[in-house]
From TrEMBL:
It comes from Actinokineospora auranticolor. ATP binds at residues 31-38. PROSITE patterns: HRDC, UVRD_HELICASE_ATP_BIND, UVRD_HELICASE_CTER. Residues 291-540 form the UvrD-like helicase C-terminal domain. Pfam families: HRDC (PF00570), UvrD-helicase (PF00580), UvrD_C (PF13361). One of its GO terms (biological process) is recombinational repair. SUPFAM superfamilies: HRDC-like, P-loop containing nucleoside triphosphate hydrolases. One of its GO terms (molecular function) is ATP binding. This is DNA 3'-5' helicase.
Amino acid sequence: MTGGPSSLLAGLDPDQLAAVTAPRGPVCVLAGAGTGKTRTIVTRIGYLIHSGHVAAGQVLAVTFTARAAGEMRTRLRAMDIHAAQARTFHAAALRQLRYFWPRVVGDAPWDLLDGKLRLVGQAAHRAGVGTERDTLRDLAGEIEWAKASLIAPEDYPAEVARARRDTPATAELVAKVYAGYESLKTAARLLDFDDLLLHTAAALEEHSEVAEEFRDRYRCFVVDEYQDVTPLQQRVLDAWLGRRDDLTVVGDANQTIYSFAGASPRPLLDFGRRFPEATVVRLERDYRSTPEVVSLANQVISAARDRPAGSRLRLVGQRPKGPDPRFAEFDDEPAEAAAVAGRVKELVDAGTPLSEIAVLYRINAQSEVFEQALAQVDVPYLVRGGERFFARQEVRQAMAAVRTAAVNAPGGGDLPALVRAVLVPLGLTDEPPAGGTARERWESLLALVELAEELASTVPDADLPRYAAELDQRAQAQHPPTVEGVTLASLHAAKGLEWDAVFLVGLVDGTMPIQHADGDDVAIEEERRLLYVGVTRAREHLSLSWSLARTEGGARYRRRSRFLYGLIPENHPAARVAARRSEPPRQAMGRGMNPVRYCRVCGDKLVGTMPIKLGRCESCPAEVDQGLLERLREWRVERSKGLRVPAYVIF
Ligand code: ATP
Ligand code: MG
């Protein structure tokens, strides 16, 4: 290693030091964004290893995204630690399962289910439920929620009735589809991502010799972003631990953004009760962001309702002063995208590296207009967080093509050139396409060529078979290659990461907060936390923008996000418009009866009673889409944890 254990500790503040050097046993770091939680746990791993408390091979660190796991590995390697594992829960489970499977289940083959919509569609068809894509997505999300919450199909109606007050008929239908999906999957000998965790936990719970072997191998567990642990992941963690308590967790309850998928901050907040002897550390110094960004972050989160004890931490900025966050309102999305791209270009020209800039949005569908605008000003970019990299069609095709080429022409030549030649027929043109799906495809293929370049520079005699093996290994570990470019990502995918400059775009009601959160206070609060996650990604430059989709006559079709009220400085032109309004825009309704309906275009209340028969909204010229109404007569399941209502109530 570089230096001794003490050199690892240089630069830590006293609270971080207390967490890093705590004796073996349970440790919990409860702290806000940018306070050094991830840095603290990685340093703790290094400290425990280099001071001889644990062998590197006995450490298993888990987190939630492949990118975060990759960053942990990079930081561990920088401390000269190679044998410690840093993986996502799923990647760790997959690896263990491959090892234990023959002993636990026998040698019958199984495969990973690649996207579940097809099987959900079959199950929905059999259950007599609509099979349109949106419905299937909602059903798939619902099945994921149930599995992550450890709810079996037969218990689903009762659990849902208790937790979410769903209508019994809807719950019965979902349960039927869920059960059908499970049996179709089992018959085809397929496992979905949640099955990996379920089988891993079961293997350890039911096979004592497997548990013993595992617990002999791994002795020290670390979890980052623990506020987003699901009951299923917690069960795996408990199975890993057995009766031991060498567990370090870090998290920030204010960053819980996956509760729609079953995650809960409770295990984080209750850690001290579960392990009374635990070392519990709170960090409040924010090392990531300028005081201006920190102050905005504090404002965003202080407006949250019902913050549980343990999450009321106030960040104190440690960095020198920086620029004020910028707020900008535009007439339409292309104008917003062009302005953002222009500003990105300015930053790049002034020396900000591409990899230090991110454009973050609420839903992946928002990326396209920003992709086009960036392509227009010739700024390379990289879209993250949509499909998993190795699940993308072009990546799967590329891997198959590389394998074939490796068999047909295994020897020698210039590896990057060979890989490029294989990928050209799949769409790797010399010039990048203008934007959209073709550009995304191109970026993935380029990432594969860059991986070949990286491999060729580290392993000089690397050939195609070696490259194919590298791809397989990465696919198994869900460790995608990275390319140099401005990051375009959803707010969910940005968790845990940081950039010098962050653009939060599309901040309009209906997108941020998302439309289906309306009428559900719990879901609205999760949206607010998502904005907090976004704001706290910025080290220095932060821009918040939105577009109102004005017509030529000046009518507005959208409202700026309700979360912006109170944040926009008083001297900003947008603030003057806000001040003229007597009250903030529509607030979330109480749950349940008689939900208010809003125009999906301008956000104003619709007049009339259900079902909506209006052809027009009263406040703006929007037409109510009759086709959509027809389609939405079928119920849809909303994925948020609150009350689910038929979609026609909430568009
Ligand atoms: P998040 O909640 O967003 O995941 P975090 O609490 O995990 O944030 P880190 O990513 O570990 O925060 O750290 C934020 C930034 O602050 C990083 O750039 C890190 O290197 C830096 N940092 C952390 N601790 C210190 C310190 N003691 N001195 C200087 N910089 C620090
Ligand atoms: Mg972190």
